[in-house]
Amino acid sequence: MQIFQTAPRRTAIDAVLDAADDVILGKGREIRLAACCLLAGGHLLIEDLPGVGKTTLAQLLARLLGLQFSRIQFTSDMLPADIIGVSIYERSAEAFRFHPGPVFAQVVLADEINRATPKAQSALLEAMEEHQVTVEGQTRALPRPFFVIATQNPRHQIGTFPLPESQLDRFLMRIRLGYPAAPQEKALLAGEDRRVLLERVEPMLTPQALVALQGEATRVHLSPPIVDYCHAILAFTRTSERFVYGLSPRAGLGLLRAARAWALLSGRDYVLPEDVQAVLPVCVPHRLTETGEGVTDLHEDIAETILAQVPVP
């Protein structure tokens, strides 16, 4: 069964990607990876310098997909209650009433997440993994779909705190946008303000349609050789002397979810090794710490090493 008909009729998700390309110029692959992450039900971490379009990408996806959007500006004095919410006593009702924080949205932009202390960062752990928060002993469900897009500045910049491994592991993907190529940057400089373009963006999907697409992604077929390939990748990272410790089972599950979503975006209902290879560079490196290093970081050649050393089935 072919899930997407690529010609002559474009699918809704194709139209979303094309519309995003019109706003964020020259970053088609990064936009596609972000859409893949969302279809896989994961969370996205964007690491890059200020001003390259990280926040614009988050707002654009929320608008195109018709999702409720919330932005949290992380600072060094932020408290967990600023994210989750707080109970306030109301005299009229003679009782405490919970006031939800900005995490209660379908798309949450955690802007400059590494400028907050680890205590504030930890407020997102339960939300990202279980799609719920527990406040004063009561568990509250988050909206569906629930997608966190976090941005972080390079860790060498002043006033940043490194994300702990437990936080990094909650992100299915970590990408970089980088500077645009010269032709796209000239078009950006000569064109309309991106904020004006964002205001004109109309939803092209409904939340219900997006949830249905996420369900389609979970049904993309995984053959036994693809599962074996993923397991071989996990095993390689656990036995290689290059890494302090290897990938967890959760990392393997995330890699296969992303590969399924990538196959779906490519119009197939089955996963190829090329799908795993396409998403591995953004799903794996941030989960690995190299021997002799004290801080997990993004290394450009980690994915190349793994793909070169692990044979394709």
Can you characterise this structure?
By secondary structure, this protein is an alpha/beta fold. It folds into two domains: 1-215, P-loop containing nucleotide triphosphate hydrolases (Rossmann fold); 220-313, Helicase, Ruva Protein, domain 3. It is 43% helix and 14% strand. It has helices at residues 12-23, 28-39, 54-64, 80-84, 118-121, 125-130, 165-168, 182-190, 194-200, 207-218, 224-239, 249-265, 273-283, 302-309, and strands spanning 44-47, 69-73, 85-90, 95-100, 107-111, 132-135, 138-141, 147-152, 173-175. A hairpin with a 4-residue loop joins strand 3 (85-90) and strand 4. The longest helix is centred in the last third of the chain and has 17 residues, at 249-265. The protein is globular and about 65 Å long. The two termini are 23 Å apart.
List the helices and strands and how they pair.
Blueprint: H1 12-23, H2 28-39, E1 44-47, H3 54-64, E2 69-73, H4 80-84, E3 85-90, E4 95-100, E5 107-111, H5 118-121, H6 125-130, E6 132-135, E7 138-141, E8 147-152, H7 165-168, E9 173-175, H8 182-190, H9 194-200, H10 207-218, H11 224-239, H12 249-265, H13 273-283, H14 302-309
Parallel strand pairs: 1-8, 1-9, 2-5, 5-8
Antiparallel strand pairs: 3-4, 6-7
Helix pairs in contact: 1-2, 1-3, 2-12, 10-12, 11-12, 12-13, 13-14
Regions with little confidence, pLDDT below 50 for 5+ residues: 1-10, 294-298
Number of helices: 14
Order of helices and strands: HHEHEHEEEHHEEEHEHHHHHHH
Helix content: 40-55%
Which fold name fills CATH's third level, the topology of the largest domain? Rossmann fold
Tell me the total number of β-strands.
Answer: 9
Mean pLDDT: 84
Assembly context of the chains: single chain
CATH class of the largest domain: Alpha Beta
In CATH, the homologous superfamily of the largest domain goes by the name P-loop containing nucleotide triphosphate hydrolases
Q: What is the radius of gyration computed over CA atoms, rounded to a whole number of angstroms?
A: 20 Å
- Number of structural units classed as domains: 2
